[in-house]
Structures are given as structure tokens and as C-alpha cells.
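## tool: complex_structure
## caller: assistant
## args:
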Amino acid sequence: MTVCKNIKKLIFKINKAKTNHNSIGFIPTMGALHKGHLSLIQKARKENDVVVVSIFVNPKQFNNPEDLKRYPRTIERDVDLIRDIADIIFIPDTEEIYPKGFGANIHISPLADVGEGKYRPGHFDGMATVVLKLFHITQPTRAYFGKKDYQQYLIVKQMVRDLHLPIKIVGGETMREESGLAMSSRNVRLSHSDKEKALIIYQTLQQGKEIIQQGEQNAQNVIKKMTDITEREEGITIEYIEIRNMSDFLETDEITEDVVILIAAQIGEVRLIDNIEVHLS
Amino acid sequence: MTVCKNIKKLIFKINKAKTNHNSIGFIPTMGALHKGHLSLIQKARKENDVVVVSIFVNPKQFNNPEDLKRYPRTIERDVDLIRDIADIIFIPDTEEIYPKGFGANIHISPLADVGEGKYRPGHFDGMATVVLKLFHITQPTRAYFGKKDYQQYLIVKQMVRDLHLPIKIVGGETMREESGLAMSSRNVRLSHSDKEKALIIYQTLQQGKEIIQQGEQNAQNVIKKMTDITEREEGITIEYIEIRNMSDFLETDEITEDVVILIAAQIGEVRLIDNIEVHLS
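## result:
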């Protein structure tokens, strides 16, 4: 296992792998690794010769400076966690990725303008920009993204398709605690009682799924019933509940095909997102 | 020489070159090839094993639909012109580059916001987006851009640096007709008398250079004197004359380092640009 802090050293390693015709699996992360990340890394380990994990808290994808400041950073623990399954861990500092004068910005429309994009202006541009740069540096055969960040996964897929990058984007299922709470680096910022409150998110998603599978086709009715559930829980503010077609990620009025229900919620100072896929048949 | 119309066939050829460890020289063009393009292609021929030329009139970089419609298209002549110096000519149609649902956009700030970017909104985004896609497809060792489009050359250089693409960007000097007129695909749209009028552009640039080299340091004074010259010529409208530092492409009030003087002018329905570098010592 090698830890690289600069791009030059990383590329030296990558080129060596390329010369040996090794496949490269890449998992970009912002650290504070949890079982969701680990399942992606394990998947990459099975499918590739060389596994590269990056840990970079990307300032450009934080629309809220407080969120950036409080984002958990646990580098030493992270490295220990994955030293036996990753071959290369890339931990650049901000100047290495964004040197003086950096001014590139990638926008993927319309995906980056809706849903989370509407509530977190600039977030997806910052994400896409750093991911594209990391792709150029690591030249992966496959790159792995968790479906907890569903829209991010779709945007990266579209970016790769639009710009014709020779990379396969692999989605990983959302990992959950036994309670149902989606694994997220931000969970470490939740108090015990916040965690209890947060359970309502996944419970509500499951309820929504059940309502649809029982035959409700009117999206607004589903959202109304879900909102009724969340409003019973104190100390949690729902930012949005959206129902979008899985095929095109458009919001739907009438549910006639497979959909994904997405929730964003605020508990104290922590913002959480989660989603559930609903297959009609 | 191979002509490829689709990406898949091109990539097959490119991968073959890569497997043989061949260097690839790439010249993206919009066709209507002239001596400026040819000098870039010849340069690439000398410096690389495989030379790839693309011909694609990129709709995304035209802010003016009339300009797009009237842009000269001379594909058969173009292919004949370069069949002996290029190995691969890539001539995709619009749907091949921008399939249904395409939504990626690359913005390079602050370079794309000033100069030509101010007068042609969206132009540089469209250019950068297609160039990045073509880079991903052709995977060049070196890519060649003419300095007649000075700002374009700088933007591509910044894009490659910002996003860490493993490509060397090579600039080619502006090729001129004997009269001094900068070679441009749009010149074929000029009547004989328009061409006469257009000579004032380069003459004025040369005058500006001389004024600076004679010691004038006040940029506004230089621009004023240049404007006086162009105003004597009828039938040509100067859109802008700008003096920018070569080091950072910022507009300057006081000329204390090497600069580039840039002109955009309209003659009838044809818009022309040109520039001259001024070295102080």
C-alpha cells in the first residue's frame, strides 16, 4: 500500500500499472470512511488489479462554509481502515488539486440544476470538476459511487457519457445501519437522540414505497402522506421529498414507471439525504 | 489515410496506435482548411508518429446562428488537401458529438469571460467542451492550436493544466497572406474589396506595436492612436482594440511588460479577429 500526497507521484504509480496492462478501480471519497465506502472498495478489489482510493474534502462542492468546516476528517483512521484492501491512497492537499489560478468548472445539465442542485447551488459543479480532474489523474478502468448520493451517481454517469471518458461507472447500493439509517460521513456529527430522530427518514421512504406499490399513482398524494409521517417527528425539518422517474430523473405527477423517492432533511446543524428505488413490477 | 465518421471506429484506430506506443499529434479544426491549418498539421507530422485531424463545425461555439449557417464547408477539398500528411481524418456529424440528452459544459474562468468571451457569450464554453471531448477520444500526446485565435489557445492551455490532462498544447504562429491579412476560414466570405478593407486590421496592429516600441506606455493612448487609423477606413467597424499582458492576459493601463494587442472587426457580415505580440526588449 502506498500513500501519495502529490499528483506526480500518483501518476508515476498509475503509469506503471498501465504499462503492466493492469485494470484500475478508483473510489473517490471525502474521507471519514464508513461501511458504505468499504463496500465500494471491496467491490473494486474484486473487479480490478489495482485499487486507488482518494481522500479529499473538496471545498468546491460545499455551498455552506460551516458544513465544510465541520465535515469530519479522520485521515489516520481512514488509512488504517483500508490499508489492506487498497493499493494506492491519494491524499492531496487543496493546493495540489486547486493551484493558484485554477478556474475550470464543469456543469452537467439539466441534472445538476434540479433536486439537490437547486438546494445546494454549485455543489454538483464542484463535485463534477474534481471528479473529472481525478479521473484524468488516476485513469481508472472502473470508478465506484454509492447510490446514497443518487443524483451524484447519475451526474458522473452523464459526464462520462457526454465527454466520452473511457471509464465504467459502477454504482454501489446504500449501506445502512441496523436501524435503517443510511451510512454517511456526516452521521458522526449526530448525537444519540439526533440519530433516533433521523430514523424517520428511511422509515418514511419505506412507507412511500409501500404506498406506491399498493397502487397509489398520484405523486403528490404519496408526498402528502409521507409529509404527514415526518411532521409527527419533532426536531427534524424535511427540506424536500421528491419522486422522480428512474429513466430520466424527471419529477413525475403520475407514477407509471419505476421511480426513486428522494429526501433531504435537516437535524440540528446536520443535513442528511437518502433515497429509495421503487420498482413497479 | 483513414477517414472516420464515428467515434467507435476512431477509437479503434487510436487504441492501435497507443498499443504500438505511437505518439499522437492532434489538430482539431472546423474545416475550410487554409495554410494556417496546414502549417499546424505539418508541425504535428514532424513531431508525432500518428497525425489526427478532426473537421467538425461545432454548433455550440457559435453564438450567432447566421454565422454558423454561413460558415464555409469544403469537406472534400479539405480531405484532398491533407490526405498525404494526416493519418486519420475524423469527420463526425453533430449527433455523433452531441447525442440526444447531451448536457456537459466546460467553463474556464476568468479567461473565457473577457475579450472575445464578452462579445461572443458562450463561445469559449462551446469550444472548450468540444475540445475536451475530442481530447478524450483522440488521446493525443500533443495538440496544435493557431495563435490567430490567441485567447482560445490560452483557454485550452489552462483547461489542460487545471484538469491535468496529459497533453502538450503547441501554439502555431498566425499565417498571413502576402498582404498581411491573417489566414482565416471566414476570409472566403470576403469580397475582393472587403479583403482590401480588411488589410487595415493588421496594419493597425503593426502601428500599435511600433507606437509601444517607440516608448508609449499608456495603453489608452496606443488604443486611441490605433482607433484614429481604423476610423479613416470606411466599411469596417472595429468591435474592440485591447491591450493585454502576455503573462496573465489582464488588460493593462500602463505597458510595463510584454503585451498582446487584439482586434475584432466587422466587415459587412463577416467578423474577423487578429492580434500581434509586442515584446518590450
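## assistant note: Residues 19 and 253 of chain B are 52 Å apart (CA to CA). The first helix of chain B runs from residue 7 to 19. Handing back to user.
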